[in-house]
Each structure stands twice: as C-alpha cells, then as structure tokens.
Amino acid sequence: MSATIEPRTALRWDYAPAPESRDAASLKPRYDLFIDGEFTAPRDGSREPTINPATEEPLAEVAYAGPGDVARAVEAARAAAPGWQALPALERGKYLFRIARLIQERARELAVVESLDGGKPIRESRDIDIPLAAAHFFSYAGWADKLSYAFAGRAFEPRGVVGQIVPWNFPLLMAAWKLAPALACGNTAVLKPAETTPLTALLLAEICQEAELPGGVVNIVTGDGSAGAELVRGDVDKVAFTGSTAVGKEIQRALAGRGTGLTLELGGKSANIVFEDAALDQAVEGIIEGIFFNQGHVCCAGSRLLLQESVAEEIVRKLWARMERLRVGDPLDKNTDVGAINSAAQLARIEELVLEGEREGATRRSITCALPETGYWFPPTLFLDVAPANRIAVEEIFGPVVSVTTFRTPKEAIERANNSAYGLAAGVWTDNGAKAFEVAGALRAGVVWQNTYNRFDPTAAFGGYKESGFGREGGPSGLLPYVRLT
Ligand code: NDP
Fold it and tell me: Whose alpha carbon is nearest atom 26 of ligand 1?
C-alpha cells in the first residue's frame, strides 16, 4: 500500500477584519471657526466639505475663513494676550495639564476622527499621534513655571500673538507641537489647520472650551492656503510654519524686514544608511518604519535608502519579502499597515514622480495588492538602479516610495547622505558604536536616529538645516522661538 503524499503548500495566514468602531466619532454636520473662545460662523468666508480620503465621502462641512475672519481671530488673540501673560506661570501650566488630560479622555474619538479625515491607519493615530499630542501638552505644562531653566537664567518675555500654520500629515500632533510651547511661554495663538484635515483641530477647540481656557488664548481658523497667507500678513509677532519648502520660502519673503519671529519646519529627503555590520532583520523593520509609516507622508521619512554594497542584495530581498506582507486598506481596520493617501492632489504628485522615476531609467517594484475601488491609494514601492541625480532621489515624494542606492565606505555614505538640498533627518544602522557616532556626527541633519527610525519624544528637539528650515520644536529648545530674551 503506497501512502499518498500531500504536496507541501505555503501556509496562508488570513486576517479577519478588525475595524475600529466609527461610532466613537460623533461628528457634527458643520463646524464653525473658533474665535475668542466661541464657535462662530465665517463672516467673509465660505464653507466646504472635508472628505474621507479612503472613501471620498464627505464627513462634515467646515468653515473657510475669509480675510476679515482671520483678522478677527488675531484681534481676539491680541486682546487676550495681557491677561494670559499676567497669569502666574503655574496657572498657565494647569490649563495645559487640563488640555492634556482631556486629550487622553477623548483619545479614542480623536484617533478615529484623525484616521477618517486624514487616511492614516488607526493603529498609528491611536498609538502615536494622539498619545504624543497629549505628551506634548503634559511636557510643556511642566515647563510653564520653570522657563528660567530653559534660557540659562536670561530674562525673557513672551512674543505676544503667534500665527501657526500646520500641515495635513499629523494634524492634531502638529497643533500640539505648536500650541503647547507657545501657551507655556505666555503667548496667545491663532492656528490654521490644513484644508484636508481640519477636524481634530476643531475637536481641540472643544477641548479648550472644556478646559475653560480663557477666550482668545487659542483661536482656530480653518480654511485653505489663502487663510494661511492672510495670517502671515496679519498683526502677529511670530509665525511658526510646517509644510512644503515652497510655501515656507513664500512666508519668509512675506515677513522679510518686519521683525516678526519665524520658524520653518519644511520638507526632507532623509537618508537611512545601513552598514554591513548592522543587525539586518532589525534594520529591515527600521526601513519599513522609516518609509511606510503614515503612507510616507512624513517630513523626516527615510526616503533615500543607502545600503552598503556587500549586504545590499540581501537587504533588498528581505525588504521586499517584508513589503509584500504589508496590509494596505481601510484606515479604521486595526490590521492595516498602510492607509489612504491624504488627497487626490497628493496622489497625483506621487504618481507623477513615480512615472518620472521609471522614465529616468530606475527599476520600479510595487507590491501587488487589492486596493479599494474608491478613495486614494498607492501601493508600497521601491526603486532600484537609481542614479543620485534622478528626481526620485532628489525631490520629496511624500508617499510610500523608497529609492535604493549603494555605497562602499562610511566616507562615501556620509557624502551621499549630505548631498541633498534638505537636512532634516537621517538613520544609521550599525553594531559598531564608534562608527555610529562618527557617521551621525558628520551628517548634516537635524535629527539622526541610531538603529531605529521615526521615534518621537516631546522632550527631544526636532528641526532641520538647509531647505528643511530652521528653528527647533520639542524639548527646552522648542521654547526659545516663543520668547524674546531681554
Ligand atoms: P503646503 O505647504 O501647501 O501646506 C502646509 C500648510 O500651509 C497648510 O495648512 C496649507 O493650507 C498652508 N498654506 C498653503 N499655502 C499657503 C500660503 N501661501 N501661506 C501660508 N500658508 C499656506 O503643503 P501641500 O499640502 O501643498 O503639500 C505639498 C508638498 O509639501 C507635499 O507633497 C510634501 O512634499 C510637502 N509637505 C511637507 C510637509 C512637512 O511636514 N514638511 C507637510 C505637508 C506637505 P492648505 O492645506 O489649506 O492649503
């Protein structure tokens, strides 16, 4: 009797859907501007829907501030400034603590809304964006009455009214990065969220009300780029901007000669460098985290992968195997690794640059996966055979696309990494501590991660060199732009 031998088959592991409940987010049909502690209809603006980029469905109608609305918000901030500055620092700190606690209390709702409005996986908004936003308020709440330690005993005063413009990739987190240090230093603020992701900033406005923050200390004017430009032209004492290098330069030109403070956190094309002596499997996880976190919509994304020649083939093989297991799809599903692209405009930009990469002769490999029929999606992609001058190796793609090049020596790795108009971040993977510090020290980047990537902490400074901008956010360095040393 001959035994039947079953052919060996690859083990298939299917995930059951694990959707987070949308009910955690009870969105209102329409949202007004938040000025002087109240929600108020736009007077010379308009209203537009904000949509879910995963489905293209409208989520709510949002006010678009006109020039007069922006001016009203700045006036409210101006009027609130003396009272806020006069409060004992400890009291200001208490408001920040309250806001932090309320963010924690409403964390689930905030995470769901962030994923609905922006397209990022719920795992990221739940475990990274929202807890970090609370952590920034907690951290700066602690600093509010200890500012003299941040400025080495120098006397200081708040700048006054600050205008803050944030992008769509980390909507609530960027609002927290900007508002928490400004308020701790005694400034009042007008915040302009991005057009495609206004909702969590508006929930933060509700939180400011719940925390009984005095009216006018935080004002939130939703709208498009013209509201941002109007805020820059307004009667503000400092502007803090995070976004594209092109708009950053425009703002710098608009403020030239006005004596208004300015910090710019702009784009990047960060190098993630892997040496042959690195723990390769760990490095592969870091590469994945570096470029596919938040669909690559990350200013410090490790979008230029530099591999030491001796291990390049092995890493690409392992990386590709790992990429093929990434789950792209519903942002509200807890199994999702890569969510929706934030907008049709951003998808078009990614597609254009990827096509350009192919035209310029690089080899494209995109994973094959079923993408939803509606919404904006792009599969995780890597480019091989990339020349350093190719547009995909030079320009910020801001999507799930990594370009791979190789190097032979640490000197060559440093030269290649620094050969960029940007200087925001970098990663160094090696088991040799001396090499790690030597290379990190030679990189012209504001943040250098060693054997990890995309780790953020409210106590650490973040910011760039060259076309990545200037000024630092986070930690004690993040307080400095919000005061005048006297
Ligand atoms: P923008 O720089 O246009 O947007 C950032 C913020 O600035 C938004 O709130 C935007 O408003 C506002 N804004 C737009 N125009 C002006 C203006 N003239 N004056 C003042 N504020 C303005 O980025 P995009 O959304 O157009 O993205 C384009 C590219 O920029 C991306 O592909 C990416 O490469 C890069 N980028 C980098 C970011 C980073 O974190 N460094 C973040 C976002 C984008 P609104 O959204 O209403 O237009």
Answer: 244
Helix axis angle, 225-233 to 245-255, nearest 10°: 30
CA of 435 to the centre of ligand 1 (A): 37
Residue 292 and residue 390: Cα distance in Å, rounded? 21
Angle formed by the axes of helices 433-442 and 410-418, to 10°? 30
- Which residues have a Cβ under 8 Å from the Cβ of 8 and sit 6 or more positions away? none
Closest CA to 100 of 192, 193, 188, 211: 211
Is residue 467 in contact with ligand 1, taking CB distance under 6 Å? no
Distance from residue 207's CA to the centre of ligand 1 (Å): 25
Ligand 1 probe mutation, 165, 270, 473, most atoms within 8 A of CB = 165
- Pocket lining: 176 vs ligand 1, CB cutoff 6 Å: no
pLDDT tens for each residue of 63-106: 999 999 999 999 999 999 999 999 999 999 999 999 999 999 99
CA dist 163 and 230 (Å) reads: 10
List of E strands, 231-270: 238-242, 261-265
Q: What are phi and psi of 188, to 5 degrees?
A: -110, 160
Q: Give distance in angstroms: CA of 244 to centre of ligand 1.
A: 5
pLDDT digits (tens, 9 = 90+) for 291-327: 999 999 999 999 999 999 999 999 999 999 999 999 9
Burial label for 451, CB within 10 Å (0-12, 13-18, 19+), is middle
Mutate-to-test residue for ligand 1 from 244, 250, 342, highest number of ligand atoms within 8 A of CB: 244
Which residue's CA is minimally distant from atom 11 of ligand 1?
A: 225
Alpha-carbon distance 100 to 93, whole Å? 11
Closest protein CA for atom 28 of ligand 1: 244
In b/e form, how buried is each residue of 349-383, taking b as 16+ CB within 10 angstroms?
bbeebbeebeebebebbebeeeeeeebbbbbbbbb
The answer to whether residue 265 is catalytic is: yes
Amino acid (1-letter code) at residue 482: Y
Task: Give the contacts of 390 (CB within 8 A, at least 6 positions apart).
Answer: 357, 360, 361, 362, 403
Task: Give the C-alpha separation, 223 to 190, whole Å.
Answer: 13
- Closest among 286, 284, 248 to 266, alpha carbons compared: 248
**What separation in Å is there between the alpha carbon of 251 and the centre of ligand 1?**
11
User: Mutate which of 33, 69, 247 to test ligand 1's pocket (most atoms within 8 Å of Cβ)?
Assistant: 247
User: Quick check: pTM over 0.85?
Assistant: yes
- How many residues belong to the chain? 486
